[in-house]
Specification:
The structure is a single chain. The chain is α/β, with parallel strands linked by helices. It is 43% helix and 8% strand. Strands 4-1-5-8 form a 4-stranded parallel sheet. The protein has a two-stranded antiparallel ribbon with strand order 2-3. Strands 6-7 form a two-stranded antiparallel ribbon. It is globular and about 60 Å long. The model has no long low-confidence stretch (mean pLDDT 92).
């Protein structure tokens, strides 16, 4: 018997209520599809009351959270979500009542561990997850979850017939699967565009030579921010897993949701990993992202006059916001892009520090520069403070893990931010940004990577 849905009476997230977000009337068909998929996937809101340890990794956008999240997803002994939690908040927010209960059910359905085997036991969950993601990625398209089941079956049969590496239950490559699947989806829904997925451009060009690289947002409404994630086989958490293993949540926006997350997991010991990165690198990444075809959030109801963005992209730059909002974002709609990105970096980290000062919750700091260091000893030193939380074996695995770039706007290289040094350094070495950078351990720009 599933746990009682005791989270139903918890209040909804004040942050998500206050910031711009899609409404049910904007995408009624998608809202209905999500409700049906929630039932089909069988996530039980009450499972969250069984969680005894909650580890929340907080940062700013372009601070390394995607890579760290994927590393933690592959760490033995922990539970995670398939991807970032933000789309789950959007989907739950489409409900007119019981939004917190809907969110808890969505989280429960997403919690588990990745696997490279698509078995009879996890195939139905995989198919439902693919349908959920396609609906979140293309909420205006009207994709039928029942048709998704057929497309998934056909794609897996085609791959197995063409390559013995795909003989069941093997599932060797998410990108190969999705490119083959998207060809079938596009036949029914031509607006579905493979360029918005987190797949190398060369693979997209090869699979879809007649589809030009797009610009602007993928559709009128967005539930999951692009670049879109790829779904793989997943082992859902059991009731005993929820109670025994730490649940790790990794996303920048949670920097502004910490009080709500503590209320959502009433029985859990909360631990915070504050992921930091030098401001020049993070802000440089934000600027690149604002000018990329990914990272669109929502079209806002006030004109944007962001220099270096609105004037460069007149087709959408006067309406579409990128990355996260923060309380008071409205005052920045007429500022230069670099200033907006600086504030996106500053507000997230300041919110974390203020909350930790107020609550005294357990926390450790993790420098992204150590995470991506080429030297194993430096990587081991970066993760060492987390050993007591994740276990020595988990930390050793993180030290040895090497992953390809994720959600990248350009190939990574050391000090890429130096291309904009003349613009960035004066801004990040003065005033409140400098004070915050020093507090986070970035007092000397000469040491920044």
């Amino acid at each position: 018997m599933p746990p009682a849905d005791t989270t139903v009476d918890a209040p909804w997230s004040p942050y998500d209520d206050a910031m711009p977000h899609p409404l049910r009337r904007d995408i009624p068909a998608a809202a209905a599809a999500f409700a049906g998929l929630r039932t089909r996937r069988g996530g039980h809101a009450g499972a969250l009351t069984s969680v005894r340890r909650l580890v929340v990794v907080v940062s700013s956008s372009r601070g390394g959270s995607t890579l760290v999240g994927e590393m933690l997803r592959r760490t033995p002994g922990v539970l995670t979500l398939r991807a970032e939690i933000n789309p789950l908040f959007v989907v739950a927010g489409l409900e007119e009542e019981h939004r917190t209960k809907a969110l808890a059910a969505e989280i429960a359905a997403e919690t588990g561990r990745p696997t490279d085997r698509l078995t009879d036991e996890n195939r139905a969950d995989f198919t439902a997850a693919v349908a959920w993601r396609l609906t979140a990625q293309w909420p205006d398209a009207g994709i039928d979850p029942d048709r998704v089941e057929r497309w998934v079956d056909e794609t897996l049969r085609d791959l197995a017939a063409a390559d013995p590496a795909w003989s069941p239950p093997a599932f060797p490559d998410r990108a190969t699967f999705h490119l083959r699947l998207l060809a079938k989806v596009r036949a029914a829904h031509p607006t579905v565009n493979p360029w918005y997925y987190d797949v190398p451009a060369a693979l997209i060009q090869k699979a879809f030579p007649d589809v030009p690289e797009p610009a602007g947002p993928p559709s009128q409404h967005i539930v999951e921010m692009p670049p879109f994630v790829l779904v793989g086989p997943w082992e859902r958490a059991t009731a005993s897993d929820f109670a025994a293993a730490p649940l790790v949540l990794t996303t920048p926006r949670n920097s502004l949701r910490l009080s709500f997350l503590r209320s959502l997991f009433p029985s859990a010991r909360l631990q915070i990993v504050h992921l930091v990165r030098n401001p020049a690198a993070a802000v440089n990444g934000l600027i690149d992202g604002w000018c990329h075809r990914g990272f669109f959030n929502i079209a806002v109801d006030r004109p944007l006059r962001i220099g270096g963005y609105s004037d460069v992209f007149p087709g959408w730059g006067d309406r579409w916001w990128n990355y996260d909002f923060w309380p008071g974002w409205e005052a920045w709609t007429g500022e230069p892009l670099a200033s907006v990105c600086l504030e996106q970096w500053r507000t997230h980290h300041q919110a974390v520090l203020d909350w930790l000062d107020e609550t005294g919750v357990e926390h450790e700091r993790l420098a992204f520069e150590g995470v991506i260091a080429g030297d194993d000893d430096e990587r081991r030193a970066a993760f060492a403070p987390l050993a007591a939380w994740l276990g020595e074996a988990g930390v050793e695995g993180l030290t040895e893990l090497r992953l390809p770039p994720l959600m990248a706007t350009a190939p990574p290289r050391p000090r890429r931010w130096a291309d904009r040094a003349d613009d960035l350094l004066p801004a990040v070495t003065t005033g409140p940004v400098r004070e915050l950078a020093e507090r986070l351990g970035y007092g000397d720009p000469a040491t920044w990577r």
